[in-house]
Amino acid sequence: MEISTKIATLRGAMKARNLAAYLIPSSDPHQSEYVAPHWEARKWLSGFTGSAGILVITMDHAGLWTDSRYFIQAEQQLANTPIQLHRLGPARGPEYIEWLGEQLPAGSILGMDGMLCSLTQNRNFVKVLHSHGLEFENNHDLPAEIWTDRPSIPTAEIFELSPSFAGLDRSQKFAQIRKSMTTKGADHYLISALDEIAWTFNLRGRDIEFNPVFIAYTIIAMDKVYLFTDIQKISSSLKAKLNQDGILLKDYSSIASFLEDLPPTANLLIDKSTTSIGLHQKIEKANIIAGSSIVRNLKGIKNETEIKHIRQAMRYDGVALTRLYRWLEEKLSTSTPVTEAELGDRLAAFRAEQPGYYGESFPAIVGYQANGAIVHYRPEHGKSATIQPSGLLLLDSGGQYESGTTDITRTTALGPVTEDQRLHYTLVLKGHIGVALLHYPKGTKGYQIDTLARQDLWKAHLDYGHGTGHGVGFFLNVHEGPQSISSAAGRGSVSLEIGMLTSNEPGFYLPDAYGIRIENLVLTAKAGESAFGTFLKFDTVTLFPIDLSLVKKELLTEAEITWLNDYHQLVFAELSPLLNAEEVDWLKSKCAPLTI
């Protein structure tokens, strides 16, 4: 079915319900960033494949709102469709709810599937819409009526992550959660976010590509734990272990009736950012306590066992990347064509040779030349560029290992480069090192650090449109909270705490020319104490060389050069014992020190 036909069919369903507009978000009932195909209605209706964006359909307009990471991608994918791109961000025009308030006559009704709308979103929608005299109905799942070949909810098997990797067993995690529940006055706790459920139970799944999670809800009571999922996905041996741990298994669809049956004496804790308004409306009797997620804050701080394994995962990743870049150099030296998509496949194959490999942590971003300027570019076979021994290659990728989740970006010169490319690269590198070298007082928040990554770019009147850092899970989602290094409201206002794993990834993008990004993962660690309090620092854990051929050394300070040399010395020391003689020689050349 053509996109125009799909939109026309949707408008027919809207008209039958007297809806003037309809929202199709990117989320699922668990407010996930990446979703299973069953909930990819926005992608099905629009053809836009980015992980963030919302489609708004009125009777005379179809628009997609997304942020700067996807502007170029959306322009390309929405071309020759009836859908108009609306750019979200500073000075980019009103957001979709404000836009609807300006476009629709008073008394109009906006519809949406409430299972895909969080309580926080619902509150914001209603506030703005009511100010314009508009109504919001969240009980309309229109794609379910018109999407005739809609994929079913995934049924992949659920498997267990050993406490030897997790550091804590289920009973220890339940105890931690219940302790926090008591302080909040709760005796029941609803968990909707899939990565939080996976962490709580030391379970993993394959329901969403790149994210080792499974579709489920959880209720933790003071004397019982309920897991709502497709029970057929759990083997008999795992069922026995879960039952032994006091976990009651319930069918996924029974969560609504369970919530309806909670007694008036129940004090139910929910997280408004991950609980859907559709599910919230099923809670008829219980007293609701709205608060921040207990599990998100617990899993965001990695324990000593997890940190030990994370360091091992970085070694595995460094080995795979060493073999990939050697392979690419050999191909280019012999004029053997290599496409972006082929390079991504080859990297996944090298990672798959490493112990405990599960899969990629997100679709590899392999951007050669102009494609590198598309922040979340994903090459496709038959459509991707052929990499040549010239210009810049941006490779942003990650792996899921039983021992942890990785995320790394390197920008590499494949041949002669311009002075502007070297300048831009060096300014990005200075921002990266500025974050890596920082010591900061306990309580410092992400938005306070974000400026350091940008200051040298700002001096040249340059900038980038994404955050500088995001939290990373442990064999879980590559993007997780509560922290981020960003000027954006919300996560950027969370304090960095010891044990948090965060990315450090400033960049610069020149549309239709090239993109530059340098990314390592960093652990927040204690730096020391003084009369002024406790100070923290970042411990860089990613292990792979940074391309020095692009560096304008005269722009670096002595401290920045020292950091680079120390980092490369660490990379060589950690990876060389895992490589053969030829690989060691290659790595040694890439880790050669810059002279001060």
How would you briefly describe this protein structure?
By secondary structure, the chain is an alpha+beta fold. Helix content is 35%, strand content 21%.
Description:
It is a single chain. By secondary structure, the protein is an alpha+beta fold. The chain folds into 3 domains: 3-146, Creatinase/prolidase N-terminal domain (Creatine Amidinohydrolase, Chain A, domain 1); 159-298, Creatine Amidinohydrolase, Chain A, domain 1 (3-Layer(aba) Sandwich), CATH 3.40.350.10; 304-590, Creatine Amidinohydrolase (Alpha-Beta Complex). Helix content is 35%, strand content 21%. It contains 19 helices and 30 strands. Strands 4-3-2-1-5-6 form a 6-stranded mixed β-sheet. Helix 4 (96-103) packs parallel to helix 5, helix 14 (304-333) crosses helix 15 and helix 16 runs antiparallel to helix 17 (446-459). The chain is globular and about 70 Å long. The protein starts with a helix and ends in a 6-residue tail after the last helix. The mean pLDDT is 95.
